[in-house]
Amino acid sequence: MSDAHSVHQAATSAPEQQDAFWMPFTANRQFKKAPRLLASAADMHYQTVDGRRILDGTAGLWCCNAGHSRPSIVQAIAEQAATLDFAPTFQMGHPLPFVLAERLAAIAPDPLKHVFFTNSGSESVDTALKIAIAYHRVRGEGQRTRLIGREKGYHGVGFGGIAVGGLPNNRKFFGPLLPGVDHMRHTLDIERNAFSRGLPEHGVELAEDLERIVALHDASTVAAVIIEPISGSAGVVLPPKGYLQRVREICSKHGILLIMDEVITGFGRVGDAFAAQRFGVIPDMITTAKGLTSGTVPMGAVFTSNAIHDAFMNGPDGAIELFHGYTYSGHPLACAAAIATLDIYRDEDLFNAAQRLEQYWEDRLHALKGLPNIIDIRNFGLIGAIELAPRPGAAGARGYEAFTRAFYDYDLLVRATGDVIAMSPPLILQREHIDQIFDRLESALRATA
Ligand SMILES: Cc1ncc(COP(=O)(O)O)c(C=O)c1O
């Protein structure tokens, strides 16, 4: 048996031993008693190791926007691996990241025309936070070091990301985190906004929290604000109408950089290349990952404004302008995957798919209102969330049951975060898939106690 064959065998059958793999963000002991193992994927579907066909309602983990195992991406990765497996990008280079960065700059909003490559959303966030602090320093405002995030925010798992993030479980085990971080309040307000279609009406005044925090610390100490335009990992929290505009105004007024974390909203999820464009609110940096390669090869990218980039391009010739980077910044396989992915997005007009389908998506999603235990339904673009009432003394149990029922009994992959069921399908889906997703989810929810 060739090695390649044995790798394939291992990937498509259940392993006998499961102890060594310490799984991320997973109840390891519970999972290993009844593993859910995926063996292959194509377009809108996964296949499990025991041969069941699962409809993917989550684009993997908010990443496979172009659908699964698309042949042109597969071919690009394979050819790249055979041509140039790796090349350093520290004081060396190869053509692909230059080509890719130009392609990305072309779809990014003005003036975000420079791109720094990373390998994940977490690295993109830490990169953007570091660039923000360093930017102020190279301009002679080195006292601007404070960072402001938001409650319920998720910005990955690096120390920077969990410090500005606002999910207690992601923070409380890990010590004092970064100093000099503050948090705005989140915008989830089920009492006033339950069952809103699209952006909620109430809550624009929560942006004024930023004024309060800035006044407390003085604007001269604040480097950046980081927020997700729509947060996914905390259970889909939407910005109230006018909220993002107001945050932008306050940042501009005080010379504070605005970073939008678009790791899940980037690359077509909300009906434009980036949520910044859909909402008409342009930040100073955008952090991305996931959809950049449609999840095929790990890669992230930080988009910075020309002003930020240019502020570093001073000093003596031959001086390294930014002491930051990853061995795999601009990795050839990731670049090849990203370029092939961008081709699909362009050729299939996938950045507009969400706007074509969102009304139907919204109608089918909100038709679930009235099923047992649903306390809120939220949507925007091709994102949907159903919040279930928690069982007394067992927060998350009902959401987990709905998720496992959907998977085992109805061949549907959704995501459960606590008692919120979230959906973010590949952007190639058709109306028939939307029908299947909501028919199956309805059955799963009816069966959930
Ligand atoms: C908004 C946001 N930022 C950052 C991340 C972290 O990305 P990664 O898991 O690739 O590090 C995520 C992941 O879901 C995310 O949703």
Question: Helix and strand layout, with pairings?
Answer:
Layout: H1 3-12, H2 28-33, E1 38-42, E2 45-48, E3 53-56, H3 59-62, H4 71-83, H5 95-107, E4 114-118, H6 121-138, E5 146-150, H7 159-164, H8 168-171, E6 181-184, H9 190-193, H10 208-217, E7 222-227, H11 243-254, E8 257-261, H12 275-279, E9 285-288, E10 300-304, H13 306-312, H14 332-347, H15 353-366, E11 374-380, E12 383-388, H16 397-410, E13 412-413, E14 415-417, E15 420-423, H17 431-447
Parallel strand pairs: 3-13, 5-6, 5-7, 7-8, 8-9
Antiparallel strand pairs: 1-2, 2-3, 4-10, 9-10, 11-12, 12-15, 14-15
The site of pyridoxal-5'-phosphate has 14 residues, from α6.
What is the structure about, briefly put?
The protein has 449 residues and is of the alpha/beta class. It contains 17 helices and 15 strands. The chain is globular.
Walk me through this protein's architecture.
The chain has two domains: 3-66 and 350-447, Alpha-Beta Complex (Aspartate Aminotransferase, domain 1); 75-347, Aspartate Aminotransferase, domain 2. Helix content is 39%, strand content 15%. It has 17 helices and 15 strands. It has helices at residues 3-12, 28-33, 59-62, 71-83, 95-107, 121-138, 159-164, 168-171, 190-193, 208-217, 243-254, 275-279, 306-312, 332-347, 353-366, 397-410, 431-447, and strands at residues 38-42, 45-48, 53-56, 114-118, 146-150, 181-184, 222-227, 257-261, 285-288, 300-304, 374-380, 383-388, 412-413, 415-417, 420-423. α4 packs antiparallel against α14 and α6 packs across α13 (306-312). Pyridoxal-5'-phosphate binds next to α6.
